[in-house]
Amino acid sequence: MNFTEHTKIRKEKFGTVLFDTLTEKIFITDRIGGEILQLIKQRKDLPQVVSELSEAFEGDRQIIEKDVIEFTNQLKSNNIIGA
C-alpha cells in the first residue's frame, strides 16, 4: 500500500489530517487511524500493519484486522492510497 501522489498527510495533537490536493477534500482520523497512516507511509503491507497494531494495542488480532481492512478500503475508495 502507498499513498497516491496527490495525498498530503499531517500529524496533529488530535490525530492526523489527510488532504487530497486533486479533489481538495480533507479527511481527519483519530490517533489509531494516524498510526495506520504512519505504517502505510513506511510502506508496510496489510499483514505488517495488523501485526504491529496487535502488538502495540494488545487487542484481538481478528478485530484489529477487520478494522484495518475497513479503514484501508475507505482510503482506497477515496483515492488516498493505491493497492
Topology:
Elements: E1 2-3, E2 7-11, E3 16-20, E4 25-29, H1 31-41, H2 46-57, H3 61-77, E5 81-82
Helix pairs in contact: 2-3
Instruction: Report the uncertain regions.
Output: none
Number of individual domains: 1
The CATH class designation is Mainly Alpha
What count of helical segments does DSSP give? 3
- Major sheet details: 3 strands, antiparallel
**Gyration radius from CA atoms, angstroms:** 12 Å
| Gross CATH architecture | Orthogonal Bundle
- Please report the distance between the alpha carbons of the first and last residues: 5 Å
Helices and strands, in N-to-C order? EEEEHHHE
Please count the beta strands (DSSP E, at least 2 residues each).
Answer: 5
Average pLDDT score: 92
Overall body shape: globular
* Helix proportion: 40-55%
Query: Strand content of the residues, in percent?
Result: 15-25%
